[in-house]
Amino acid sequence: MYAVIRTGGKQYKVHEEQILKVEKLDGTEGSQVEFDDVLMYSDGETITLGSPKVENAAVKAHILEQGKDKKKLVFKYKRRKGFRRLKGHRQNYTEIKIESITV
């Protein structure tokens, strides 16, 4: 059994007991979150596609960790001009564990 959910402008294929990192969500560690934006659901035999969402479907998860990702370096360079810029960026994320998928 799995579902495809949309959060943070991205789509994720999730199944129960899965741990994944998503864009930062509001909430504290240990709190419950619910995703109503379920785009597809499969119970192993049949596949239900939403248009655009599956009606009365929800994915429940709880937050394991709020953190920052590894630093990504952004380097800008223009040849023969002496222009160089080096910046770093650390993206916020939320690590969640999928508890249940209900339809």
From TrEMBL:
Keyword Ribosomal protein: yes
InterPro entries (UniProt xref): bL21-like (IPR028909), bL21-like_sf (IPR036164), Ribosomal_bL21 (IPR001787)
One annotated Gene Ontology cellular component of this protein: ribosome
N-terminal signal peptide: none
GO term, biological process aspect, one: translation
Keywords (A to Z) from UniProt: Ribonucleoprotein, Ribosomal protein, RNA-binding, rRNA-binding
SUPFAM superfamilies: L21p-like (SSF141091)
GO MF: rRNA binding; structural constituent of ribosome
Domain of life: Bacteria
Cited function: This protein binds to 23S rRNA in the presence of protein L20.
Family: Belongs to the bacterial ribosomal protein bL21 family.
PANTHER family linked to this entry: 50S RIBOSOMAL PROTEIN L21, LARGE RIBOSOMAL SUBUNIT PROTEIN BL21M
Subunit structure and binding partners: Part of the 50S ribosomal subunit. Contacts protein L20.
Name of the featured protein: Large ribosomal subunit protein bL21
Phylogenetic classification of the source organism: Bacteria, Pseudomonadati, Thermodesulfobacteriota, Desulfobacteria, Desulfobacterales
